[in-house]
UniProtKB/TrEMBL annotation:
This is Glutathione S-transferase N-terminal domain-containing protein. It holds the Pfam family GST_N. Residues 1-80 form the GST N-terminal domain. InterPro entries: Glutathione-S-Trfase_C-like, Glutathione-S-Trfase_C_sf, Glutathione_S-Trfase, Glutathione_S-Trfase_N, Thioredoxin-like_sf. Residues 85-204 form the GST C-terminal domain. CDD domains: GST_C_Beta, GST_N_Beta. PANTHER family: GLUTATHIONE S-TRANSFERASE GSTA, GLUTATHIONE S-TRANSFERASE-RELATED.
Length: 204
């Protein structure tokens, strides 16, 4: 059976949501990042990079949300979690890659730098993060779902970062109306609510 190594509320939630949306059987293994469980020898044997998520499959371990999301979508085609046509699939991957390489590091720097950023350094990091949210708000999010009319794994992935921003009071409704509406739309999905509940969280 598939086994997802995750940390509550962290980016692994994207993979968790995809598994719930797929309606598949899987186990959850919590890795407490605050306790440093990502650096135990047991977890490093699963993912030597020492980060979550990791998905253990019968063939081996898959890391990186972008890879896990497409694996879940392609192994559960009946769930319709990703486009199958090549151009549409590539557009989805462009969005997912941007989330992983651009939005995640930008907001992660603002929220999770240790020691926490202060003063002008924080203001600069925040400005850079807001520029990414502006890009998503004005260009990348097609609507009603991330890629357009069809829901996909990209929705749960985008939601992770809009949720982090809302939690930190950074997702201003006037500046980011479409991202706010998208976050509400995604959080209202039953599969997302199940994933949130399993992580001890609820819609915000
Ligand atoms: N690009 C990776 C990022 C993985 C990542 O940075 N995960 C964070 C949680 S959001 C983590 O486990 N951090 C633990 C650490 O850095 O010690 C992915 O999407 O899978």
């Amino acid at each position: 059976m598939l086994k997802l190594y995750y940390s509550p509320g962290a980016c692994a939630m994207a993979s968790h949501i995809a598994l719930e949306e797929a309606g598949t059987d899987y186990e959850l293994q919590k890795i407490d990042l605050r306790q440093g469980e990502q650096r135990t020898p047991e977890y490093l044997a699963i993912n030597p990079a020492g980060v979550t998520p990791a998905l253990a499959t019968e063939q081996g371990v898959i890391t990186q949300n972008v890879a896990i999301l497409t694996y879940v979508a392609q192994t559960h085609p009946q769930a319709g979690l990703a486009p199958t046509e090549a151009y549409a699939f590539a557009r989805m991957q462009a969005f997912n890659a941007w989330l992983a390489s651009s939005l995640h590091p930008a907001i992660g720097k603002v929220l999770f730098s240790r020691p926490p950023l202060e003063g002008a350094v924080r203001a600069e990091a925040l400005e850079q993060a807001f520029a990414k949210y502006d890009l998503a708000e004005q260009h990348l999010l097609v609507g009603p779902w991330a890629l357009g009319e069809d829901h996909s794994v990209t929705d749960g992935y985008l939601m992770v970062f809009t949720r982090w921003a809302r939690q930190a009071d950074l997702l201003d409704k006037a500046r980011f109306p479409r991202l706010n509406a998208h976050l509400d739309r995604v959080q209202s999905r039953p599969a997302v609510q199940r994933a949130l509940a399993a992580e001890g969280l609820s819609a915000i």
